[in-house]
Amino acid sequence: CDPHKYGFAPKGASVVMFRDPELRHCMYSFATDWTGGIYATPTILGSRPGGVVAATWASMIKHGEAGYIETTRRIVGATREIGEAIEAIEGIELVGRPDVCVVGFGASPGSGLNCYSVKDCMKEIGGWDLATLQNPAAIHLALTLPSSKNVDKFIADLRTAVLTVSADAEGKYKKGTAGIYGMAASVPPAFIAESAKVFLDTMVSQ
């Protein structure tokens, strides 16, 4: 798990738990014939700074069990409240069950609505940066403690976005994310994979 998401720790710390030492051995990296001597390290990454681990520990001590329980109560409650609201909005429907901390939704069959257009509209009117999903087409919100405090605004903005996109006769919201994913659906997967490599090459070569 990543403590930075719901443990309120800095990024860079992760927790991996093993059932027994034999499984943990699969994580080890070592070279017994290296000219510099026998080299062994717990992970393939080798040495890492301990500052992030110390900060994660401090965060967990500060919040404590009671603090995390209260945070969980708020996030789960907010997630389910948004899920219930989505069920009442015409044109969209839930994808999966919003039981814990993620709400996914897409266009209802026959609605003619593009959920990616709703995503772009949500960004424009409320600054919501929702994540895209595919197969099936959908978008989702992963709730954290800050976003759980803005449930009413999210629901109101979502209602507005669905109505706005439904009435978009000029096709303003058919571009952007909707256009990208619409194009990707008609392109062979191998070509998309190669395009992703070009994108990453460009990003790391700057």
TrEMBL record:
UniProtKB keywords: Lyase, Pyridoxal phosphate
Entry cofactors: pyridoxal 5'-phosphate
Cellular component, GO, one term: membrane
Molecular function terms from GO: sphinganine-1-phosphate aldolase activity
InterPro entries: GrpII_AminoAcid_Decarb, PyrdxlP-dep_Trfase, PyrdxlP-dep_Trfase_major, PyrdxlP-dep_Trfase_small
Domain of life: Eukaryota
SUPFAM superfamilies on file: PLP-dependent transferases (SSF53383)
A GO biological process held by the record: sphingolipid catabolic process
Protein name: Sphingosine-1-phosphate lyase
Species name: Coccolithus braarudii
